[in-house]
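One-letter codes give the sequence; the fold follows as tokens. Both lines appear below.
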Amino acid sequence: GVYDMTKNNDQEGAVFTPVPFARQQAAMDYLHEAFFTTPTWMIDTTILRRIEVSGMADRMLRMQGAALNILFRPARLERLYNNQIIDPGMAYSISDLFASLETGIFSEWATGESPDLYRRNLQRKLVDEFGELLDRKEDRTDARALARKHLTSIEARARRVASRGRGKGTDAAHAADLAALCRTHLEKKRD
């Protein structure tokens, strides 16, 4: 992010200032807590049984996916990239963003917990977002290289989880599916 201070010609100081790293990280922590952790308070089965047969998983993925889409917008990634030029070593980078997303959205792999179906959908969505970045030829940032790095990392971690067969059969199947999805994105022929 960037602070935009409107100034007249005769005013001193910078018009654009990168948002400090700590504030950016706090914003990401908030997103993980508010959007990327399954909001169980929204899933009241008593109410859902009265109003619909299905659709909650799709609605949740659309909500969480919209937050991811905002983070992956080319203009946002370019701002993060350019902030590194303006404020090297102090700016929140694309690398920081992607690492936070991978660590947070795949946190169950570190804790040994089983991801619920909402989280599994979000994990697939993140892998697809990284995969779509590989298709952006007009990208002039490090985003494509970093997306490739994170797809490779997720694939390796998913293979380890799948080979251990940890938890229910769904966990191992989901991990194997994620590994295959990462590989598909990495090996996709691009024009």
